[in-house]
Amino acid sequence: MRSEEVAAKALKLVGDDRYMLALAVAKRAEALAGGAKSLLDIDVTKMKFADIALREIAEGKIALEGIVEAAK
To answer: What pTM did the predictor assign?
Structure first.
């Protein structure tokens, strides 16, 4: 899946709210950088944390409510 497709899919899951998507990606990427395990079934060793987070959101593997609530 191309990055544009991933971003479009993730954006639809957050109701086209770019701010919420950016916040969710940032929080998940921060967690990944802190040692959290990726939820993807692919090799992520050469991917950036933000790309992993975006793809996890696009695939519906992340509950956005929990991430956004924790940021408040």
So the answer is: 0.83
